[in-house]
Amino acid sequence: MESLILTLVLAVVIFLAVLQRATRRTGTSPTLATIRVSDPAIARRALIDHADAFSNRPPTPFPVPIVTGRRRRRSDSITTVPYGPHWRALRSNLTAEILHPSRLSLIAPLQEKAVESLVADLLLAVAGGDDVIVRDSLHAAVFTLVARLCFGDGVDAADVSEMQRVKKEFFVAIEDAKVFAGCGSRMAKLVHWRRRRRFMDSRRRQAELFLDPSHCGKEAKLLRERRPREPPPVPVVVRDVLAEDAAPAVGRGTTMTTTTTLAAGTVRVNFILGDIGRDSKAWTDPDEFRPERFLAGNEADGVGPVPGRKEIRMMPFGAGRRTCPGAGFGMLHVKKFLAALVRA
């Protein structure tokens, strides 16, 4: 019995010694300093004047690779690839094919179904006397629309519910991974393996669900091409419904002032979209809901959802080189859903 206990103690001591040596050798990954930008002028200087320095997304929160080998490049997307030829090719393919205006006109039937579902859902909630949370209903309508756009109109409510559940698991796994993002690589592999396994299980369930061949053409109805309808006579009110979200970027080395230099790869910059869109120097009573400010002749005349090079007054879809390529796609939904809610 004593020999067994001695053997166990010796094994634990050896394990701790090896672990300490491995951690000392690999070191720890430095934590990126975070800068929050809420001033539109600074945002314009960073994203437009110094576009080369702020054109990359932050590194993955996972301390160990999730996809390895030849599959790793196939898993890249425009949100993860560093700025360069590969990123430009991915974005060009997305904007020239999937999100081209000529293709957006094909989604009118799916859009009409989503609008009908949204209005019916809200009317049902009102009739039941429950608190009506419009944001949740809008999210469900848009998610259903995008799911059917990707996989065909054979996607039913049960499929959408399962997709939302898997998506939630995916983001929970990412948040769990951030806890150990600053650990050394050896320590990360020892401590993080259970969360990595859970993330991989979530990825596998996504593949089984999202890549079901029965939703990818066999039962999908062909959408007949329609001429895009005229936009409804409703002013753009995106600025007034912005969430206080943050668009992250990583500084690659630039001087913003004469006294501050951002070292390459060591700074995470968050652009606070809600604060930028409510700057009191750019808007009169920025916290007031005044959609008429976007009408011709008023203070927001000519201000669009994607800022130009001279001025940033709001940036709901980002700014600079990594502006969201789905801005037109999103605005199409905003106008359609808003007009339906006003009529309802």
Provide structural commentary.
This protein is mostly helical and 344 residues long. The chain has a domain at 33-102 and 230-343. The chain has helices at 2-26, 40-49, 71-74, 85-98, 101-104, 108-127, 134-151, 157-178, 185-191, 193-210, 273-276, 327-343, and strands at residues 33-37, 246-251, 254-255, 261-262, 267-272. The strands form two sheets. The chain has a three-stranded mixed beta sheet. β3 and β4 form a beta hairpin. The longest helix has 25 residues, at 2-26. It starts with a helix and ends with a helix. The model is unreliable at 22-29, 212-245 and 253-259 (pLDDT under 50).
SS class: mainly alpha
- Mean of all residue-level pLDDT scores: 70
Tell me the fraction of residues in β-strands, as a range: 5-15%
Which percent range fits the helix content?
A: 40-55%
- List the strand order in the largest sheet: 1-5-2
Total strands: 5
Poorly predicted parts: 22-29, 212-245, 253-259
SSE pattern: HEHHHHHHHHHEEEEHH
User: What is the overall silhouette?
Assistant: globular
- Assembly type of the shown chains? single chain
